[in-house]
Specification:
alpha+beta; 2 helices; flat
Amino acid sequence: MIPDSSIFRMHSKGKPASSWCTQATRGTVGRPKHSLGVHCYMGMTYYGVTTLKLVTNTHKLAQKYINPKTKRAFTGVGSKEYNDVLQQHLIPEGKRLFHQAGMRADKWKLQKDNGLAHTTKENMQRISDKSSH
């Protein structure tokens, strides 16, 4: 299974905003200061995809992961949150997909990129132990 995350925004940063307006109001329609969006993880396999898991950076999602150094909420997915996403969502969903396809739930691999949250010692151990959870 290949898991990854993406952020989907209502208004893209760095790109010009487009809007429908009358000739008289052209140029008066502004861009929002803070764009609404969702940040989610999903896993994909030959046999299907997991459900989406909303994570930090999703508009109006309560931030429960605190940076111990700054005592403030993380602005992106940290190691602890990624570990929770693995344990509570991606691994169980992967097992479900492969089981539904008639494959043994412990005979699949989790492939990931080298994002900082993904490569901590604890998360690497979680990935290698996925079949025991």
